[in-house]
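Help wanted!
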Amino acid sequence: MSKNKQTENAQRVVVTGIGLVTPLGIGKEEFGRRLFSGETGIAEIKSFDTSKLSSHLGAEVTNFNPRDFISVKNLRRMDKISLMTAASARLALDDANFRITEANRDRVGIILGTSFGATDITVQFLTNLFNGGPANVNPILVPNTVMNAAAGHTSIELGFRGVNTTVTHFAVSAENAIAYAAAEIRRGTVDFIFAGGTDILSEFYYKSLTKFHALSPQNKGKESCRPFDKDRNGMIVGEGCGIICLESLQSATARGHKPYCEIKGLGMGSSSTKPTAWPQNPEGMEKTFNRALKNACMSFNDIQVIFAAANGDKILDAAEAEAYAAIFDSPEKKPFITSLKGAIGESFSSGGIRACALALSLENNILPPVVGLENPLKSLAFVIGKKKEAEINNAALAGISFGGTYVYMTFSK
Amino acid sequence: MKKRIVITGLGTLNAIANNVPDFARSLKKGICGIGAIDLFDTTGFHSQTGGQIKNFIARDYIPEKFSMKRMSRADKLSLAATLEALHDAELYPSPKELKEEIGIAIGGGAGGLLEAEEFYSDYLKNNGKDVNFCKLSSLFCASSTDCIASTFGFSGPKITFMTACSAGATAIGYARDLIVNDQASIMIAGGVEPMCRLTYAAFNALKSVDPATCRPFDKNRAGLSLGEAAAIMVLESLDSALNRGAKIYGEILGYGITCDSFHMTAPDEQASGAVRCMQAALKDGCLNIEDIDYINAHGTATPVNDLTETKAIKEVFGKRAYSIPVSSTKSMHAHTLGASGALEGIVSVLALRHGFIPSTINYQESDPQCDLDYVTTGTRKVELRAVLSNSFAFGGNNTTLIFGKYSDGGALNE
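Answered by r_m:
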């Protein structure tokens, strides 16, 4: 019996650190303060000219000084996405109060999600090639054209050598990465792992999104991000990186570190949706959420809050709201629903930042409001206006991507 | 006890074959698929050759009822290879009740870059005017995963990896775990990599390509040859395969992932990452060094990779390193980057199934520092129990897969 219990303990995965480089601030203190007071990181784009485009807003990372986090030796080889990622990982490591040493570095890993990678470097590389031919190609850019560069640079900067993988599956890149990382802790290949998501804004990328009519204002009206609102008219794109540190409960306990929360359930699934289209049908979400609850041995009623994927898109938000209305049909037991996209924008790999926010919510029993939400499209328990204080024991993180891919996870105190 | 995961279907298109039976034949014959390429203009590059897939007309592979609108070459190659693998596994057409339980894990690389490059070139010429951005809709490699799901109506987990040259192997390793962890019953797992200008220009700029044809482990090796491929496996639990009465190619015994944490484009010359990776895979599979009968090397033919990999094999296998055949089939199908781990996974499975060791072709002069048995004098006919396949990538990502021959008398690692 006691042996069984021990094996169970070894398989429990906990979140022991969070690191953030986001439009709401760098590090958990600034991020948390601004998030829970309902501020937004969305503003006029400053890093490039949007005057000729149909959208002008974005959630940019500002006041980020890589030198505060990254060694001079590695700094010059790193591009924007790698700098944000390595800085977030450094912050998460410090927050977890963990030290990477010669003795443990082979048991530390990273599984990172990125939806679009270093679009800035790819564009620069191809511009050189097409404007000047093969002789004009800059070899220094080459390593950063691959999507796994950010995780590679991070491992070099922090000096760890365990599992290292990069996941890219559009808007569920980060959720997929966190799920994989949790499985690696359970499999016992590493003792400590960084997981999360990272994406950046770049001029060509932003312009492409406007051409796909993906951004607010999709139709008419004021450009703004209003998740779950009747008058929503599209998403506003953002950037940033959120990293969580995962460990086995045993490892955290052994070093006397109090975890934020535990990862309990995981559900993965998909539905037949046209590639690049948001799913209109809530069934895939319901099915995957149910799978996560079953995996956690929980029922709907155990969940007090859902960190939703809704980003202000006409189709996505309606389907997601419908999914939760169907799952939680008893009115008095409805969990709170919040979405961060009005505050941090849609960075597609936002699951990393949202997982950090979820950890802070569980720790402090406060829920962040849905910035931009005034007239809910459905009667659900949305957190509107300002933060809400509530006893939170179990929370769900929703990962939904265009193309119809879903990853749901539940986290518990 | 851990669930045993077996391989029940294979599909591939690559420089030496456009289907699996032809691939097995070409491997046995030692065919070289590296030569001139016509997907784009190679004028001005350090090399002009590559391992291009020959005569690929998508409609010859993909039935009319499936739309290929806005699909990239990578998407179409993935669909063609998936169709072959599903047919092979007797899962096409797929029973309705199984579709919910079929997931997809793909290792990608350039995705739809080949087409996006054409778009971007026009974009630059026209100063951003009169260009159709829709051409970018299949740019990212997750597009291939989504295309497979939407075409066949699968609704299990979907995930795409992009870890350069180890992505395909990682996809197969993780797909195994998704079945072990009950997230899916059947996984379509593998990799796809199309040739494109960006990749070609990048490797040429680094001078890591051989201007002629790659010569793995040869004393005068001068770099890799770039290639392209789609390589797909159908994975399922042994119980599921037995219940369906499926043909079983072999089983996945172990996988390991590590990183060098050394340099973005060069392997750690101490080979620590590669050593720990092979050891992790052996440990994961509860295997000993004596169990491995053949190593399908990463063997890119860059001076440093082949030397480092040789060192790593010696460190892991000790004296036994000299008696295990090690070959690099990249000498035939070239380096297919994001697809390579999956393509060489198929090589490993075919070697187990048909009882042969493919050779390292193009080998002329021995390198005193690379002194293992690289199978340079032709294919060997021999029964194999387990095959280890290495994939090492830019960014210092390493993945090792170990495949075993299926025997109903129990697994090698029991």
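OP: Thanks! One thing I noticed: The first helix of chain A runs from residue 2 to 10.
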